[in-house]
Amino acid sequence: MKLSAPLATGLILVSCCPGGQASNVATYISKGNVALSVLMTTCSTIGAIIMTPLLTKLLAGQLVPVDAAGLAISTFQVVLVPTIIGVLANEYFPKFTSKIISITPLIGVILTTLLCASPIGQVAEVLKTQGVQLILPVALLHAAAFALGYLISKLSFGESTSRTISIECGMQSSALGFLLAQKHFTNPLVAVPSAVSVVCMALGGSALAVFWRNRPIPANDKDDFKE
């Protein structure tokens, strides 16, 4: 797509990020398999500690210097530490977690909104000059991920699982990509693709979820998924 090295690096970085938590909500709306969605998000998130730095180094290392060790440490801090804290809190302080569980979904929605808005706000000036040329590459990245996730899954799985895998493939953790770009790359342009990705991912995933919401799962679906 003839992108400059910093923008190409940012696009590679966001494509190497794990599935975003918003994918679980989109899967629920689309009548997919929510349990599978949560499992996939968890596995890709844990795997990202190794795979995101490794893939970014392999794919973008020739464009700009990539600190794989630094990326791994930051991914561990941002992704795995909060997950461990949540699991331990639920295990050792069940009374406390049972009291706050009714409001945590709302908190999650608010925080997700802020995480999506923050990257856009921080690079607003750069987006005015560089954003237009990124819309097509980023949109193609997510569209290809949605399409390939669904079509390849249909070869072996039923409708509900295929929808789930499609959404998991297409909805990346763009906020994580933005954070890593800001912390580990000196050129601010590396963070711009992640900011554009936030919008494309949210719009594409939401539109796909609503589209599938209005298309019921076949009664003879091979996954035997019950609504």
UniProtKB/TrEMBL annotation:
Keyword terms, alphabetized: Membrane, Signal, Transmembrane, Transmembrane helix
Claim: Membrane is one of the keywords in the record: yes
Signal sequence interval, chain numbering: 1-22
Topology in membrane: Multi-pass membrane protein
Entry's transmembrane regions: 32-56, 68-88, 100-120, 132-152, 189-212
CC terms in the record's Gene Ontology section: chloroplast envelope; membrane
Main localization category: membrane
UniProt subcellular location: Membrane; Plastid, Chloroplast envelope
Protein family membership: Belongs to the bile acid:sodium symporter (BASS) (TC 2.A.28) family.
Protein name per the record: Bile acid:sodium symporter
Native source species: Thalictrum thalictroides
